[in-house]
Amino acid sequence: MQTVVALSFVAGALALPATAPSQAQPASLNKVTMGKKHVVTRSDGTADVASFYASLNHTLAKWGSPSLPYYAPVASQQAAASAARRMAKRQAYEDLTDQYEGTSEDAAYYGPVVLGAGDGHPQTFQLIFDTGSSDIWVPGADCGIADGCVHPLDPKYDGGGTALGTNTSIEYGSGSTEGANYVDDVTVAGLISSNQTFFAVYSAYGFEEIDADGICGMAFTSIAQDNGTTFFENLIAEGAVDANEFGVYLGRVASGTEDDSELALGGRDSTKYSGDFTTVPVSSETYWQVALDKVTVNGKTGGINTPGQAAIDTGTTTIVAPTTAAKEIMAKIPNSYGFPLEGEILYIFPCNTSASYIPAIEFAGESFQINPLDFSIGAISEEDIEDLALGNQTIVNDLKSIAATSASGLSDYCIAGLIGADLTDIENLYVVGDVFIKNWYSVFSYDASSGSPAVLFAPSIGQDS
Ligand SMILES: *[C@@H]1O[C@H](CO)[C@@H](O)[C@H](O)[C@H]1NC(C)=O
Ligand SMILES: *[C@@H]1O[C@H](CO)[C@@H](O)[C@H](O)[C@H]1NC(C)=O
Ligand SMILES: *[C@@H]1O[C@H](CO)[C@@H](O)[C@H](O)[C@H]1NC(C)=O
Ligand SMILES: *[C@@H]1O[C@H](CO)[C@@H](O)[C@H](O)[C@H]1NC(C)=O
Ligand SMILES: *[C@@H]1O[C@H](CO)[C@@H](O)[C@H](O)[C@H]1NC(C)=O
Ligand SMILES: *[C@@H]1O[C@H](CO)[C@@H](O)[C@H](O)[C@H]1NC(C)=O
């Protein structure tokens, strides 16, 4: 069935980062190839409900906190590096082999980050490059399983940098991280931020399902909880990049492009997109937040008027829409059903839904189609009913009666990659995650819109089928 995501797992070995300077790349474009580690779809195309919920829980943990501060827009920072400093820019190309796990989990993209290379104690961590947050954190030396650092084989920061003697604590709706603040040099794809703040976690809750070692926040410094400048804004300030932007390509296992996943620092990779970019100005320099005009389903029947704000978030697997918008959108997809679960609404829809009924999102007057391959998290199998309902008997019964209407039962239905939830104080905030970004090469630029920050989208290469 076309809309069912068929995944194959490759037992992977983590390769050491290898420099390949001879590779033909645009000058000064530094890249990290990001591995796709977690998957929410089983190899037979059915959804892995448990890992889907773990992924969703992580999204809600990250976004769902009323205590997550909302910051007013700040002035554009570090608009341009001097021409003289451009001469000193590094050119390096760092590549990694993708790593897969046979177990089904969430979806996330990560790559290697080296701490402490400059002081002769390099340590490599696998971090999620997260455009929805602004801090770097890694496990600290003292963080054991009982402290929430549940992956005993993860590297632990050796404390070789300068300890600031302060702590950073981030509270989430259903989790938290706390760690000791440090300054050390941080290197990604050969680009060095020599005076980088981050925190070494000594206590974490609610992040058990993250398999990467930690997070490298790529949103704006204004929301950094450790009060330090972000990694990328430091690179700009140090004149380490040619262009004040980074480009993200998220591959897809179903299309065989997972190994092409990449973060380009200081430019965009022209081999990863086609056509022209649409520039969407950033509306608040906090998250990579932009205005969302509307969502359309089957253009012929007209757009759904649900304007709002969207955080373009590489660190979230799905798309989360405000509940009123989600209801409106999903009501336009024939035979879809919503299940309210503890504050969020989960949707299922017929797997054979024609592509024209898969939602598109309008930014800056342009329509961006969500790929049907991404909109479906996978088909439901009969044994998933109890898990899917999270023990709610009303929902179990509803699912059974839906199954009864279809010759093949529930396996004709797929879980939607769009969830309804009201996450923050920001009115009508959509979190637009990997389900969208896989289809649209995304450039996060500090100066693309008349010198102000913008997110730019162009069609991703290799993601059509
Ligand atoms: C989500 O997280 C909360 C708090 O950590 C936990 O109690 C709950 O069981 C989780 N739900 C699912 C479906 O995993
Ligand atoms: C930071 O956290 C550690 C460990 O909990 C604690 O011992 C220390 O007093 C804290 N430091 C500050 C400045 O709060
Ligand atoms: C960051 O600044 C805020 C506001 O001034 C302060 O409350 C907080 O303790 C600071 N955090 C760190 C880690 O320095
Ligand atoms: C390093 O960064 C801190 C704040 O993050 C700043 O106060 C300090 O001046 C910086 N030092 C250098 C040498 O740039
Ligand atoms: C079970 O689900 C139904 C339908 O979504 C909802 O109305 C009800 O509140 C849920 N029950 C509990 C105990 O959460
Ligand atoms: C999807 O499958 C159902 C059941 O076989 C069928 O009635 C319906 O016409 C199909 N829809 C599309 C768009 O193919």
TrEMBL record:
<keyword id="KW-0378">Hydrolase</keyword>
<keyword id="KW-0732">Signal</keyword>
<dbReference type="InterPro" id="IPR001461">
    <property type="entry name" value="Aspartic_peptidase_A1"/>
</dbReference>
<dbReference type="InterPro" id="IPR001969">
    <property type="entry name" value="Aspartic_peptidase_AS"/>
</dbReference>
<feature type="active site">
    <location>
        <position position="130"/>
    </location>
</feature>
<feature type="signal peptide">
    <location>
        <begin position="1"/>
        <end position="15"/>
    </location>
</feature>
<comment type="similarity">
    <text>Belongs to the peptidase A1 family.</text>
</comment>
<feature type="active site">
    <location>
        <position position="313"/>
    </location>
</feature>
<protein>
    <submittedName>
        <fullName>Aspartic peptidase domain-containing protein</fullName>
    </submittedName>
</protein>
<dbReference type="InterPro" id="IPR034164">
    <property type="entry name" value="Pepsin-like_dom"/>
</dbReference>
<dbReference type="Pfam" id="PF00026">
    <property type="entry name" value="Asp"/>
</dbReference>
<keyword id="KW-0064">Aspartyl protease</keyword>
<dbReference type="InterPro" id="IPR033121">
    <property type="entry name" value="PEPTIDASE_A1"/>
</dbReference>
<dbReference type="InterPro" id="IPR021109">
    <property type="entry name" value="Peptidase_aspartic_dom_sf"/>
</dbReference>
<dbReference type="GO" id="GO:0006508">
    <property type="term" value="P:proteolysis"/>
</dbReference>
<keyword id="KW-0645">Protease</keyword>
<dbReference type="GO" id="GO:0004190">
    <property type="term" value="F:aspartic-type endopeptidase activity"/>
</dbReference>
<feature type="domain" description="Peptidase A1">
    <location>
        <begin position="109"/>
        <end position="458"/>
    </location>
</feature>
